[in-house]
Amino acid sequence: QVQLIESGGGLVQTGGSLRVSCAASGGTLSNYCMGWFRQAPGKGREFVAAISWSAEMTYYADSVKGRFTISRDNAKNMVYLQMNSLKSEDTAVYYCATGSRWTCGTNSPTGYGYWGQGTQVTVSS
Prior knowledge:
This protein is mostly beta strands. The chain is built from no helices and 10 strands. The protein starts with a strand and ends with a strand.
Protein backbone atom coordinates (compact mmCIF):
# COMPACT_ATOMS: atom_id res chain seq x y z
CA GLN A 1 0.00 0.00 0.00
CA VAL A 2 2.83 2.37 -0.81
CA GLN A 3 1.78 5.73 -2.17
CA LEU A 4 4.24 7.80 -4.16
CA ILE A 5 4.01 11.55 -4.67
CA GLU A 6 6.26 13.40 -7.08
CA SER A 7 7.09 17.06 -6.71
CA GLY A 8 9.54 19.65 -7.94
CA GLY A 9 8.44 19.88 -11.53
CA GLY A 10 8.04 23.17 -13.28
CA LEU A 11 9.23 25.35 -16.11
CA VAL A 12 12.94 25.64 -16.81
CA GLN A 13 15.01 27.12 -19.61
CA THR A 14 17.01 24.98 -21.98
CA GLY A 15 20.36 24.25 -20.37
CA GLY A 16 18.98 24.77 -16.90
CA SER A 17 18.62 22.41 -13.98
CA LEU A 18 15.78 21.01 -11.95
CA ARG A 19 15.40 18.42 -9.23
CA VAL A 20 12.28 16.34 -8.91
CA SER A 21 11.50 14.41 -5.75
CA CYS A 22 9.46 11.36 -4.89
CA ALA A 23 8.06 10.90 -1.40
CA ALA A 24 6.59 7.65 -0.17
CA SER A 25 3.82 7.16 2.35
CA GLY A 26 2.22 4.04 3.72
CA GLY A 27 5.45 2.10 3.65
CA THR A 28 9.19 2.20 3.38
CA LEU A 29 11.25 2.39 0.21
CA SER A 30 14.18 0.59 1.75
CA ASN A 31 13.47 -2.72 0.03
CA TYR A 32 12.50 -1.34 -3.36
CA CYS A 33 14.41 -0.57 -6.45
CA MET A 34 13.17 2.87 -7.47
CA GLY A 35 12.77 4.10 -10.99
CA TRP A 36 12.00 7.32 -12.77
CA PHE A 37 10.01 7.30 -15.99
CA ARG A 38 8.63 10.05 -18.16
CA GLN A 39 5.84 10.43 -20.65
CA ALA A 40 5.37 13.17 -23.20
CA PRO A 41 1.98 13.85 -24.81
CA GLY A 42 1.21 11.26 -27.44
CA LYS A 43 4.16 9.08 -26.47
CA GLY A 44 4.63 6.01 -24.35
CA ARG A 45 6.14 5.89 -20.91
CA GLU A 46 9.92 6.03 -21.20
CA PHE A 47 12.55 4.79 -18.78
CA VAL A 48 14.80 7.50 -17.37
CA ALA A 49 16.76 6.14 -14.43
CA ALA A 50 16.69 3.58 -11.63
CA ILE A 51 18.50 2.99 -8.37
CA SER A 52 18.87 -0.15 -6.27
CA TRP A 53 17.52 -0.26 -2.74
CA SER A 54 20.99 0.11 -1.25
CA ALA A 55 21.94 2.81 -3.79
CA GLU A 56 24.92 0.71 -4.84
CA MET A 57 23.77 0.50 -8.45
CA THR A 58 22.24 3.07 -10.74
CA TYR A 59 20.90 2.84 -14.27
CA TYR A 60 20.28 5.52 -16.84
CA ALA A 61 18.75 5.82 -20.25
CA ASP A 62 21.28 6.75 -22.89
CA SER A 63 19.37 9.95 -23.57
CA VAL A 64 19.97 11.27 -20.05
CA LYS A 65 23.26 9.67 -19.07
CA GLY A 66 25.75 12.27 -17.97
CA ARG A 67 23.03 14.85 -17.41
CA PHE A 68 20.71 13.27 -14.84
CA THR A 69 21.57 11.80 -11.45
CA ILE A 70 19.29 9.58 -9.40
CA SER A 71 19.70 9.30 -5.65
CA ARG A 72 17.72 8.11 -2.66
CA ASP A 73 17.44 8.56 1.07
CA ASN A 74 15.79 5.48 2.52
CA ALA A 75 15.63 6.96 6.02
CA LYS A 76 13.43 9.73 4.64
CA ASN A 77 11.59 7.55 2.12
CA MET A 78 12.71 9.91 -0.63
CA VAL A 79 14.03 9.46 -4.15
CA TYR A 80 15.45 12.27 -6.23
CA LEU A 81 16.27 12.96 -9.83
CA GLN A 82 18.67 15.80 -10.45
CA MET A 83 18.35 17.01 -14.02
CA ASN A 84 21.05 19.18 -15.54
CA SER A 85 21.63 20.55 -19.03
CA LEU A 86 17.95 20.19 -19.76
CA LYS A 87 16.73 20.01 -23.34
CA SER A 88 13.36 20.58 -24.92
CA GLU A 89 13.02 16.85 -25.48
CA ASP A 90 13.13 16.34 -21.72
CA THR A 91 9.69 17.93 -21.48
CA ALA A 92 7.34 15.32 -20.04
CA VAL A 93 5.45 14.20 -16.99
CA TYR A 94 7.94 12.49 -14.71
CA TYR A 95 6.85 9.51 -12.64
CA CYS A 96 8.55 7.56 -9.90
CA ALA A 97 7.82 3.89 -9.40
CA THR A 98 8.77 0.93 -7.24
CA GLY A 99 10.51 -2.13 -8.59
CA SER A 100 12.41 -5.13 -7.30
CA ARG A 101 15.94 -6.44 -7.56
CA TRP A 102 14.77 -8.43 -10.55
CA THR A 103 13.52 -5.41 -12.50
CA CYS A 104 15.86 -2.65 -11.42
CA GLY A 105 18.17 -3.17 -14.36
CA THR A 106 15.38 -3.20 -16.92
CA ASN A 107 13.94 -0.29 -18.86
CA SER A 108 10.35 -1.46 -19.06
CA PRO A 109 7.59 0.07 -16.93
CA THR A 110 5.92 -3.35 -16.74
CA GLY A 111 8.48 -4.42 -14.14
CA TYR A 112 7.40 -1.74 -11.68
CA GLY A 113 4.51 -1.88 -9.25
CA TYR A 114 3.50 1.27 -7.43
CA TRP A 115 3.40 4.52 -9.38
CA GLY A 116 3.03 8.16 -8.48
CA GLN A 117 0.77 10.62 -10.25
CA GLY A 118 3.65 12.41 -11.90
CA THR A 119 5.05 15.91 -11.96
CA GLN A 120 5.23 18.06 -15.07
CA VAL A 121 8.61 19.22 -16.30
CA THR A 122 8.60 21.72 -19.13
CA VAL A 123 11.81 22.86 -20.78
CA SER A 124 11.45 26.02 -22.82
CA SER A 125 13.75 27.41 -25.46
